Amino acid sequence: MADFxxxxxxxxxxxxxxxxxxxxxxxxxxxxxHEQILPQAGWVEHNPTEIWERTRAVVQxxxxxxxxxxxxxxxxxxxxxxETTLVWNRRTGRPYYNAIVWQDTRTDRIxxxxxxxxxxxxxxxxxxxPPATYFSAGKVQWILENVDGVREAAEKGEAVFGNMxxxxxxNLTGGTDGGVHVTDVTNASRTMxxxxxxxxxxxxxxxxxxxxxSMLPEIRPSSAPDPYGVTRPDGPLGGEVPxxxxxxxxxxATVGQVCFSPGEAKNTYGTGxxxxxNTGEELVRSKAGMLTTVCYKFGDHPVVYALxxxxxxxxxxxxxxxxxxxxxxxxxxxxxxxxxxxDNGGVYFVPAFSGLFAPYWRSDARGAIVGLSRFNxxxxxxxxxxxxxxYQSKDVVEAMREDSGVSLDVLKVDGGVTANELCMQMQxxxxxxxxxxxxxAETTALGAAYAAGLAVGFWxxxxxxxxxxNEDKRWLPTWSDEQREKGYAGWKKAVERTYxxxxxx
Length: 505
Fold this sequence. Notes:
Blueprint: E1 4-10, E2 14-20, E3 26-33, E4 45-46, H1 48-66, E5 73-80, E6 86-89, E7 99-100, H2 108-116, H3 119-127, H4 136-146, H5 150-155, E8 159-162, H6 164-172, E9 182-184, H7 185-188, E10 194-195, E11 200-201, H8 203-209, E12 218-220, E13 229-230, E14 242-248, H9 249-256, E15 265-269, E16 273-280, E17 291-296, E18 304-311, H10 315-325, H11 333-338, E19 348-350, E20 368-370, H12 378-404, E21 411-414, H13 421-431, E22 435-438, H14 443-456, H15 462-466, E23 471-475, H16 481-496
Parallel strand pairs: 1-5, 5-14, 9-12, 15-21, 21-22
Antiparallel strand pairs: 1-2, 2-3, 4-7, 6-8, 10-11, 13-14, 15-16, 16-18, 17-18, 19-20, 22-23
Helix pairs in contact: 1-6, 9-14, 10-12, 12-13
GO molecular function: glycerol kinase activity
Function: Key enzyme in the regulation of glycerol uptake and metabolism. Catalyzes the phosphorylation of glycerol to yield sn-glycerol 3-phosphate.
Keywords: ATP-binding, Glycerol metabolism, Kinase, Nucleotide-binding, Transferase
């Protein structure tokens, strides 16, 4: 068998390809950003053609860096930004419209109407999700209703839908010349269209959004011994490599963090924050604002579920300080600036740029900076930005405890923001539990590699994967209970100030 596994991580701001060895160690990577298209307030789009071009480039560059051939890869896995929605023509391969990104809020009227007329209860029960702008179905409905010719093409079977995993896989396996139109259960569980019990598209949910079933990809397991397809010899790999793993990015990070037992949880710090708690084969329906979602399904084994707390804006709040306000020149500078002050100086920043996600689900909220006085400086704002990442995570941890009865002993963390050591110390202080970062911080790509490798016997069991996990650093809480309670009370007060800023019909 070949000595390595490749994993494509198609994220919100960039696309990367990584190669791992049997020990789960990184061998090589290449990463390229893509444009964030912001046509108007609340709209966020990506160019799907640019993303496919970036995919080709990063795969080829990574192989070149490692001096490897496609035949050196035993399998290929894909992980992706999940709810980002694309409709394209299966005959021409051309997208009808830009990909509508998960952060986009243009479908707020669709979501509100579902909630208002009672269909939201059905969606919550079947799909485990609240009606929200976050998920894919409303975005597909918007494209069908607002882009000329798409409804007609869909009814003729020419227009097809997919999240970014499906788009990339379709192109890797030939595109217009035999491209495979599939997704996995984790991505399908983020659409508001899949029944969590049957793991199939639900006709009643489809009717809520006016989506023809013929548009949808086939739903497959996250790890497939029978490959979804193979890469085409004329594609970026230049050879036939089995595509055997697909996981939505947050589920991939959960697998990369080897959270295979019920009660184990991880928090990924990226553009947004996503905390997943493995609930095993039990489908736990949230009463506290969490999402019920598929964690993974490996081959013929039973499906494993999770509770998830999804937070829209965390790492992207730091990007906002850099790109829109210009008070830092790079993400790393946020830590240095925040260290110039001992505390937030009474300032709280609630970055509700796309409304509030878990556990609030308030599409009428917008970002707010509160508690300002003449005393405050850009350092206080930098510190409040890092604290906002941690307080939003605490909101989610508290809601999960309410739903599951599980109190965390330790929080496993991964993603780009974990390089900010001050932020991780704040997270331990605000939660009151240790925070643990693994040696391989890019657990999203690693999880996709694990799913692909398990399918072909590159790794035999999840116990084997556990042996690959090693801790890099641990942060212990230093705040008193009084400090923690006072800080959190201020945060909750600040969150309330963001409500009702936008009128939602």
